[in-house]
Amino acid sequence: MSGKIKVTLVKSVYGQLKNIRDSVRGLGLRRIGHSVVVEDTPSNRGMVNVAVHMLKVESVQGS
Q1: What does the pLDDT look like over 7-62, one tens digit per residue?
Q2: Residue 42: domain span
Q3: Which CATH number belongs to the domain containing residue 31 in this structure?
Q4: Overall number of domains in the chain
């Protein structure tokens, strides 16, 4: 589980609960359409699971 995942914000954080907004910000996402590549760690997976309804998640092959 030590790979990388690409996370893209596809919906606005406006009107969401504070913990969801904080999780999106913690992943490094700033605006709709913004993508980041993060390590596939349990803490990052937890933030993704909180906001899964607003994100597109892809696994990244290679290093």
Answers
A1: 999 999 999 999 999 999 999 999 999 999 999 999 999 999 999 999 999 999 86
A2: 4-60
A3: 3.30.1390.20
A4: 1
